[in-house]
Amino acid sequence: MNNKTVMVPFVDLTLQHQPIQTQLQQAIQGVTERGDFVLGQALKEFEAAFAAASGVEYGVGVASGTDAIALGLQACHIGSGDEVILPVNTFVATLIGVIRAGAKPIFVDCDPQTALIDLEAAARAVTPQTKAILPVHLYGQMVSPRQLLDFADTFKVLIFEDAAQAHLAEREGYRAGSVGTAAAFSFYPSKNLGAFGDGGMLLTRNPDVAQKMLRLRNYGAAQKYIHVEEGTNSRLDTIQAAVLHEKLPYLPQWNRDRLNAAQQYDIELAPLASSGIIPIQNHSGEGHVYHLYVIRVDDSCAVQRQQLQEQLAQVGIQTGVHYPIPCHLQPAFTHLGYQVGDFPNAEMLAKQILSLPMYPGLSHSQVQQVVSAIASTLSAEQQKVLCI
Question: Using one digit for the tens of pLDDT, what is the confidence trace for 319-351?
């Protein structure tokens, strides 16, 4: 950023951590005193607690959200020769997880209003080799569970949820992670429930999937030194699990704080819709947990996205873009054979979307400050046009 003082940070984790600093330190100290740093007591406790909070029976902690996808798909017996349908509008980890599982990724476009997977496009992408659909609950909003279950029933495919941004999100009576056969979560520090480093988890109701996942994360071992399949080393550290377990009871309130901030953004930004500032739509009501609050800087807007972002930075407001390049146009994946124009909605969003500050503790005045800065930028640009 060009400015020296950040007035409204994009994320401020201290607001979560400072009030519970003593509890967090005690949780870490408990692990150090027990010395069970790998596959320890706190991990088992957190796995059970997070699974229960999400409405499923089993949780298996792993080293990252990417591993939760890659190993989770393998645990669901998806691999070579299988096609997995996924949205092109997602973080690249979703794609990498499919590829690492040995499956073939089949991209589909997104709904331009919600940025979520277009299930009609997904239906057209089904082939005899389609084994699973991998919906991404993007920005904290779930893909419709009822539509997903209808899709799975119609095409006889497995649902594997990417819920990395949707901890305890709800829609249509389901919680994220409870819709499909399995689901992957990330505990990257900035997530709604974040660790003090990397971490992830697979959730499932299926005991066989859970048992296979337990083996895959630990060198494929059914018991010590008995390796029944090719696994890897991907275990959620016990210290990270202890931190996450301590934070979990606060997550519902943190999610409500995010929702409250998002609702205020909606109100404050409404007058700017006619000027081309359009929030991504919420079709989940209070079940949206707003990992990110994302607007579109529409083509009708007097300023372009980059110009708006730069002007906000000048007055100390940090923003982000999630994501600037769709997966099919990333240089590493040209071998998949997709081209510019294949997914017009995702390509349009990549040019228009802007993520505004969002975190528990974001104040009413800070939201007003962000929206006021956007309005001032638009007004200044419109005045320039009038003077020409």
Answer: 999 999 999 999 999 999 999 999 999 999 999
Respond yes or no on whether the N-terminal peptide bond of residue 338 is cis (omega within 30° of 0).
Answer: no
CA end-to-end distance (rounded Å), the chain: 30
The gap from C-alpha 359 to its chain's centroid, in whole angstroms, comes to 14
Task: Pick the closest to residue 85 from 76, 100, 75, 95 (CA basis).
Answer: 95
Q: What is the rounded CA–CA span in Å between residue 289 and residue 142? A: 9
Scan for tokens 């419709």, then name that residue. 144
Q: How far apart are CA 50 and CA 184, in angstroms?
A: 12
For residue 205, what are the contacts with CB-CB under 8 A and spacing of at least 6? Answer: 56, 57, 58, 178, 181
Compute the distance between CA of residue 30 and CA of residue 17 in angstroms, rounded to an integer: 18
* Token output for 22: 């003593």
**What value, to the nearest 5°, has the Cα angle with vertex 209 and ends 203 and 211?**
100
- Cross-strand partners of 221: 227
How do residues 161-178 score in pLDDT, each as one tens digit? 999 999 999 999 999 999
> What tokens appear for 294 in the block?
């994302």
Neighbouring-strand partners of residue 310 = none
* Model pTM above 0.90: yes
- Under a CB-based contact definition with an 8 Å cutoff, are residues 140 and 291 in contact? yes
**Residue 358 Cα distances to 67, 98, 259, 319, angstroms:** 26, 29, 10, 9
Residue whose token pair is 């991209």: 107
